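S.,

Sequence below, as promised.
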Amino acid sequence: MEIPQVVRDYAEAFARADVDGCAGAFAADGTYSDPGTGGPLAGQPLRDHFAAFFGGFPDATCETVSLDPVTEHLSVWRWLLHGTNTGSYRGAPATGRSLTLPGCEFLEARGGKLHRVEGYFDRLTILAQLGLVPGAAAPAAG
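The prediction came back faster than expected:
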C-alpha cells in the first residue's frame, strides 16, 4: 500500500507550520479532531485551529517518527512535536516554556483530499510542561 500524497503533503505542511497547507489538504467537508478541539472541526474553525496553535508555538517543529498505511484510505502518522509557548494558546497567556509532545494522527484520504483526521496526544503532558497544572513538575532539563 502507498501513502496518499495528500497525507505526505499535510505532514510536511504541519512540519513547516503552514496554516494554508494544513487546511488546504482537507476536503470541503473534511474534519479534524484532537483531545483539545471539543469535537470535529471543519472549514474556517479548522483553519483557525491551526493558526492558533502555530501562533502559540511559532517555533514549533514536528518530527515524523513514522508514517504508515493502515488500509487503502487510512494512514497513521506518529510524530514528536517541539516548541516554545511564546504566544497565547487556547486562551492562556504565553508561558515561555518549552514543550515536547509525542502523538499520532489517523488520516483518512479519498480523492486527493483529507476527509477525516483524528489526533491523539496526552493533554496533561501539555499542561504540565507549560506549568498550567497546579503542583505539576516541570520537565527535567535534558
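Helices lie at 5-15, 19-24, 43-56, 123-129.

Coffee later?
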